[in-house]
Amino acid sequence: MSNRIECYCGAVALRCEGKPVASVYCHCSDCRSAWLAPVADVVAFMPEQTTVERGEEALVQGVITPRMSNYSCGQCGALVYNTDRFGFRTTSGAMFRRANGGSLPEGFAAQIHIYYTERVLDIDDALPKFKDVPTDLGGSGDLWEP
């Protein structure tokens, strides 16, 4: 399995080393805006775990909110990664699936839902659903109760 993703045209390649800091389904409005989806499949790394291997000059920075910036390929427009309020570099699980024939590298599958109180779509699965984020990420650690 590859820990490397590319934009759609191949101009930009990002390598992520080691295991993610977090793999989550995020329901916050920032992630929904960044990923243009009702829920974001987010794989988060510390900045030092990531390297732009190719095409750094092709990256275009955008601002989603005061807490989040995105970095997209200036040629094809693909969102390669974001920086978030926690200081992580985040990318989409879908980008890793695309790079790996539809599969995720081990340990990259979402383990929890975060900011579930902000959801616009109910998800019926067995994963824990946090009102905000777990305490180790600076949140309350409170679980959402139906």
SSE topology sketch:
Layout: E1 4-6, E2 13-16, E3 22-26, H1 29-35, E4 40-45, E5 50-54, E6 59-65, E7 68-73, E8 79-83, E9 89-92, H2 93-99, E10 112-114
Parallel strand pairs: 3-10
Antiparallel strand pairs: 1-2, 2-5, 3-4, 4-9, 6-7, 7-8, 8-9
Describe this structure in words.
- With 146 residues, the chain is mostly beta strands.
- The protein has one domain (4-131): Metal Binding Protein, Guanine Nucleotide Exchange Factor, Chain A, CATH 2.170.150.
- It is 10% helix and 33% strand.
- It has helices at 29-35, 93-99; strands at 4-6, 13-16, 22-26, 40-45, 50-54, 59-65, 68-73, 79-83, 89-92, 112-114.
- The chain has a seven-stranded mixed beta sheet. A three-stranded antiparallel beta sheet has the order 1-2-5.
- Strand 8 and strand 9 form a beta hairpin.
- It starts with a strand and ends in a 32-residue tail after the last strand.
Number of helices: 2
User: Which percent band covers the strand fraction?
Assistant: 25-35%
Low-confidence sequence ranges: none
Sketch the topology as an H/E string, one letter per element.
EEEHEEEEEEHE
CATH topology value: Metal Binding Protein, Guanine Nucleotide Exchange Factor, Chain A
Could you tell me how far the N terminus lies from the C terminus, measured between alpha carbons in angstroms? 37 Å
Mean pLDDT: 93
CATH class: Mainly Beta
Give the overall form.
Answer: globular
What portion of residues is helical? under 10%
Structurally, the number of domains stands at 1
Gyration radius (Cα, Å) is 15 Å
Strand order of the largest sheet: 6-7-8-9-4-3-10
Biggest sheet statistics: 7 strands, mixed
Named at the architecture level, the CATH assignment is Beta Complex
Number of strands: 10
Structural class assignment? mainly beta
